[in-house]
From TrEMBL:
The chain crosses the membrane at residues 27-47, 67-86, 98-115, 121-140, 160-182, 188-205. It comes from the Bacteria. This is Uncharacterized 5xTM membrane BCR, YitT family COG1284. It comes from Ectopseudomonas guguanensis. It is a multi-pass membrane protein. Pfam families: YitT_membrane (PF02588). Keywords: Cell membrane, Membrane, Transmembrane, Transmembrane helix. Coiled coil: none annotated.
Length: 215
């Protein structure tokens, strides 16, 4: 008779299995994730909406001063790379830098590839928020982010166990509400709706106790 390891047969018990993503999977996740985020940004820009985090700051600079969204988004993320290197490691920070650069480039290019003859603002808020949430989910699951608040949210989850989606939702809501001085109240309300949709996607799907893939 051969010895066998005991098996946990309790209802709901699941054996932890850590699966490391190969490099090509990480690369595709960065490309597809940032493309989804850029599409959501295109929806928001056309509808005159905004979101939280560094993306929201770039929107505000674009709406208020006409500055390039991609350029502002790149520059405003630079200070957060220090936190990323210090607390999350070089691998995470390098992947995040690549994701930020891709979003900056794709956000500028997407309006030349996709045009909207008509776009309902409510649909733009919901679908744009969901698209950005799905894009961020792909990045998070491959140990990357879009810098800024994303780095802080992931750090809070890994260090203190707070859900990344919940942390980001609280910060994003504050940024969007502060935008009432820049955009009309109805746009702010729709932006809040979009922020809730974005972070709902993250809060439901991105939990450290459910997903164990690593990069």
């Amino acid at each position: 008779m051969t010895d066998q390891s005991p098996v946990d047969e309790r209802p709901g018990a699941v054996a932890a299995l850590f699966v490391r993503h190969p490099l090509w999977e990480d690369a595709l996740a960065l490309l597809f994730g940032t493309a989804l985020v850029a599409l959501g940004i295109a929806f928001y820009a056309h509808a005159g909406l905004l979101t939280g985090g560094t993306v929201g700051i770039a929107f505000l600079a674009n709406y208020q001063a006409g500055w390039s969204f991609g350029l502002v988004f790149c520059l405003v993320n630079l200070p957060f790379y220090l936190l990323g290197i210090w607390r999350m490691g070089w691998g995470f920070t390098l992947r995040t830098g690549c994701a930020v650069l891709l979003v900056s480039l794709l956000a500028e290019a997407t309006p030349h590839w996709v045009a909207f003859a008509h776009l309902n603002a409510v649909y733009a808020a919901l679908f744009g928020g969901a698209a950005m949430g799905l894009g961020l989910l792909m990045l998070f699951r491959h140990r990357a982010s879009l810098g800024g608040v994303n780095i802080l949210a992931l750090y809070m989850q890994e260090r203190f166990g707070f859900r990344a989606g919940a942390v980001q939702m609280a910060i994003d809501a504050s940024i969007v509400l502060a935008a009432i001085f820049v955009v009309s109240p109805d746009k702010v309300l729709l932006s809040v709706l979009g922020a809730v949709m974005l972070n709902l996607v993250l809060a439901i799907n991105h939990r450290a106790d459910r997903y164990v893939g690593v990069s």
